C-alpha cells in the first residue's frame, strides 16, 4: 500500500482539523438543522414499511382480511411517497447550502490572497494559485453537496433502522450488527490510501494548470514558436497529462479488492440471516415468517445507507487533502496590514512630501540587503530621479514606496505620516505608479482606464489620454475607446501600453507620481512626446523617476545614485557629472 508522504502528513496536521472544517458550516447551522430534521423524518417514515409488511404477512393474509390488507398496503405506499417527497426537498436545500459554503470559501481565499505581499507572488507560480482557487475548491463540490447530504441521510437511516432491527428481534439484530466493525476497518484503510493519491492528483493538476497558463498565453506562444520548442512543450504537457491520468486510475481502483470484500459481506447478509432464522425456529422461541421477511426488508433498508456511509467516509477522507492545500494558503501570514485605526488624509490636504528614514529591506532567503540604510527627503512638488546599475535596489525601493513590501527597519513617510499608519485607500490615492511592465486587463481601453477611477466621464478619459499622448492612436482604431486590448495588452506595442498605463494614473490624479522605468519601451520620438506629457503632469505634484536611461532625468531637481542597495551620490546633473564618480560612470556607460 502506498504511504502518504511525510510532508503531506505535516501539512495536514498543521492546517486541517475537524473543528476548522465544521466552522465553514457554522453560518448555516439553522438551515442545516432544518435539513437534518427532514432527514430524520424521512428515515422514520421509511421504517414504517417493514413493520406494515410484517403485519400483512402475519395477520392480514392468514386471516384473509381484505380491508386490513388494503389499509396496510396503502400505508406502505403513503410512507414511500412521503419519504420520497421529503428526500427531494432535503436534496434541494442541501445543494443550496453546499454552494453557499463553496462561494464563501472561494471569496475568502481570493480576498486573503489579495492581501499578501509581493514577496508571496514573486515566489509562487500563477498556475498554482489558480489551481487552488478553482481546482481544489471545485474538488470539494461533492463533499459540500452530495457527500454531506448522503452523510446525514445515511447516518439517520442507519441509526433508526438499527433500532428497528433490535426492536424486531434482538437475537437476529446481534447477528446482523456483528459485520459492522469489520467493514468499517476495511473502509478506513481504503480511505487512507485514496487520500494519499488525491494529494498527489491535486499537485499534478496544479502542474498542468501552470503549463497551460505559461505556454498558452500570447507570450508563451511567441516564445515557443520563435525558439522552435512547440514539440518539446507538447511532450512535456503529455507527460503531465499521462501522470495525472495514471493517478486518476489508481485513485478509483486502489484497494478495490478490499472494498469488494465489503460488498460481498453485505450481499451475503440476507442469506445468512435466513439461515440464522431457520436455526432459531428449531428452538423454543422461534421467529415468525413475518419477522424474518421484515428483518430482510429492514436489512435492505440498512445495507444501502450503510454502504453509502462507508463510501462517504472514504470520500470525505480524500477531501482532507484538498482542505490541506486550501488552508495552507489561508494560513499564509498577511504582511501588508492596515492598522485598526488607520490615518486618512483628505485629497485636498495631500501635499506630496516624501521622507525615507534609514530604510532597509531584504528578500526572503537572502542575506544581502536589497535596500540598505537609505535616507532621503523629497520636498512636495519636486522631481527626484533614482538611478544606478542593475541590481542596485532601485526597483525594490519603488516597491517599498508603493508598500508592495514593508520596510524591515526605518520608515517611509508621506506628508509626515508613516506608510504603515496610513489607510490603504489613502495610500492608493496619494501615490500613482507607472511601471516598466504595465499590466492591462483583457477588456476595452475605456474599461482599463476606468479601473483607476470607475466614475470617470468620457471627457475625463479623453483628457487623460491626451496628456499621455495616446488619444490620437486610440481614436484611429475602428472601435476607438471600446477596442479590446487583448490578453496582457498584446494588441498594443510596448510604448502604447506604457502610455495607456500613464493615462490610467493621470486619471487618478495622485499628488505623488512614481515612474519605474516608464519610458524604457518608447522610441526616441515617442519618448520626447511623453517627456513633454510628464512635464505637464508633474507640475504641482511630486515625481519620483526610477530610470536606467539617463537622458530622461537630466533636468530632475535631485538625482540619487544607488549601488548595492545604498545611496552613494546625490545632487543635480551638472554637479554629479563634474564629480567624475559613480554618476559620471553611468553617463559613460550610456
TrEMBL record:
- ABC transporter domain boundaries: 354-589
Task: Give one GO term, molecular function aspect.
Answer: ATP hydrolysis activity
ATP-binding as a keyword? yes
The cross-references to Pfam families, in alphabetical order and at most eight, read:
ABC_membrane, ABC_tran
Domain ABC transmembrane type-1 span(s) in chain numbering = 33-318
Record's subcellular location: Cell membrane
Q: Which CDD domains match?
A: ABC_6TM_exporter_like
The record gives the membrane topology as: Multi-pass membrane protein
Q: Which GO terms describe its cellular component?
A: plasma membrane
Query: What Gene3D superfamilies does the record point to?
Result: ABC transporter type 1, transmembrane domain, P-loop containing nucleotide triphosphate hydrolases
Asked if the keyword Nucleotide-binding belongs to this entry, the reply reads: yes
Q: What is this protein called?
A: Multidrug ABC transporter ATP-binding protein
What taxonomic ancestry is recorded?
Answer: Bacteria, Pseudomonadati, Pseudomonadota, Alphaproteobacteria, Rhodobacterales
Amino acid at each position: 500500500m502506498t504511504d502518504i508522504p511525510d510532508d503531506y502528513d505535516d501539512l495536514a496536521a498543521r492546517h486541517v482539523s475537524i473543528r476548522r472544517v465544521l466552522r465553514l458550516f457554522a453560518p448555516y447551522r439553522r438551515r442545516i438543522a432544518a435539513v437534518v430534521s427532514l432527514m430524520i423524518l424521512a428515515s422514520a417514515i421509511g421504517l414504517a414499511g417493514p413493520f406494515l409488511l410484517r403485519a400483512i404477512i402475519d395477520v392480514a393474509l392468514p386471516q384473509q382480511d381484505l380491508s386490513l390488507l388494503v389499509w396496510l398496503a396503502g400505508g406502505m405506499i403513503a410512507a414511500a411517497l412521503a419519504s420520497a417527497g421529503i428526500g427531494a426537498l432535503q436534496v434541494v436545500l442541501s445543494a443550496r447550502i453546499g454552494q453557499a459554503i463553496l462561494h464563501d470559501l472561494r471569496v475568502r481565499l481570493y480576498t486573503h490572497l489579495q492581501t499578501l505581499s509581493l514577496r508571496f507572488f514573486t515566489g509562487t507560480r500563477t498556475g498554482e494559485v489558480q489551481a487552488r482557487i478553482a481546482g481544489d475548491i471545485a474538488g470539494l463540490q461533492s463533499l459540500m453537496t452530495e457527500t454531506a447530504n448522503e452523510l446525514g441521510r445515511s447516518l439517520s437511516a442507519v441509526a433508526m433502522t438499527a433500532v428497528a432491527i433490535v426492536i424486531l428481534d434482538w437475537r437476529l439484530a446481534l447477528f446482523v450488527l456483528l459485520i459492522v466493525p469489520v467493514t468499517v476497518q476495511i473502509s478506513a484503510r481504503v480511505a487512507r490510501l485514496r487520500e494519499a493519491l488525491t494529494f498527489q492528483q491535486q499537485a499534478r493538476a496544479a502542474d498542468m494548470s501552470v503549463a497551460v497558463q505559461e505556454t498558452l498565453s500570447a507570450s508563451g506562444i511567441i516564445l515557443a514558436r520563435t525558439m522552435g520548442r512547440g514539440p518539446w512543450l507538447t511532450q512535456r504537457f503529455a507527460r503531465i497529462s499521462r501522470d495525472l491520468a495514471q493517478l486518476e486510475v489508481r485513485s478509483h481502483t486502489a484497494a478495490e479488492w478490499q472494498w469488494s470484500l465489503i460488498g460481498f459481506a453485505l450481499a451475503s447478509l440476507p442469506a445468512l440471516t435466513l439461515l440464522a432464522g431457520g436455526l432459531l425456529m428449531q428452538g423454543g422461541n422461534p421467529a415468525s415468517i413475518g419477522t424474518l421477511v421484515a428483518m430482510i426488508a429492514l436489512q435492505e433498508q440498512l445495507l444501502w445507507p450503510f454502504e453509502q456511509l462507508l463510501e462517504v467516509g472514504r470520500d470525505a477522507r480524500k477531501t482532507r487533502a484538498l482542505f490541506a492545500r486550501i488552508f495552507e494558503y489561508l494560513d499564509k501570514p498577511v504582511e501588508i496590514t492596515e492598522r485598526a485605526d488607520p490615518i486618512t488624509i483628505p485629497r485636498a490636504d495631500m501635499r506630496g512630501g516624501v521622507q525615507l528614514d534609514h530604510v532597509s529591506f531584504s528578500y526572503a532567503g537572502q542575506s544581502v540587503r536589497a535596500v540598505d540604510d537609505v535616507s532621503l527627503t523629497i520636498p512636495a512638488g519636486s522631481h527626484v530621479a533614482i538611478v544606478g546599475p542593475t541590481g542596485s535596489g532601485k526597483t525594490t525601493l519603488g516597491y517599498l514606496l508603493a508598500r508592495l513590501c514593508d520596510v524591515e527597519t526605518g520608515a517611509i513617510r508621506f506628508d509626515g505620516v508613516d506608510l504603515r499608519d496610513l489607510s490603504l485607500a489613502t495610500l492608493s490615492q496619494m501615490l500613482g505608479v507607472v511601471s516598466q511592465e504595465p499590466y492591462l486587463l483583457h477588456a476595452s481601453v475605456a474599461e482599463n482606464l476606468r479601473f483607476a477611477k470607475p466614475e470617470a466621464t468620457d471627457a475625463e478619459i479623453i483628457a487623460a489620454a491626451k496628456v499621455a499622448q495616446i488619444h490620437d492612436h486610440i481614436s484611429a482604431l475602428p472601435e476607438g475607446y471600446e477596442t479590446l486590448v487583448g490578453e496582457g495588452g498584446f494588441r498594443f506595442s510596448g510604448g502604447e501600453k506604457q502610455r495607456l498605463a500613464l493615462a490610467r494614473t493621470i486619471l487618478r490624479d495622485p499628488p505623488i507620481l512614481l515612474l519605474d522605468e516608464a519610458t524604457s519601451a518608447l522610441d526616441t520620438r515617442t519618448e520626447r512626446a511623453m517627456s513633454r506629457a510628464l512635464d505637464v503632469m508633474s507640475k504641482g505634484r511630486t515625481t519620483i523617476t526610477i530610470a536606467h536611461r539617463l537622458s530622461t532625468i537630466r533636468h530632475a531637481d535631485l538625482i540619487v545614485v544607488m549601488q548595492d542597495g545604498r545611496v552613494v551620490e546625490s545632487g543635480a546633473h551638472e554637479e554629479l557629472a563634474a564629480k567624475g564618480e559613480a554618476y559620471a560612470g553611468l553617463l559613460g556607460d550610456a
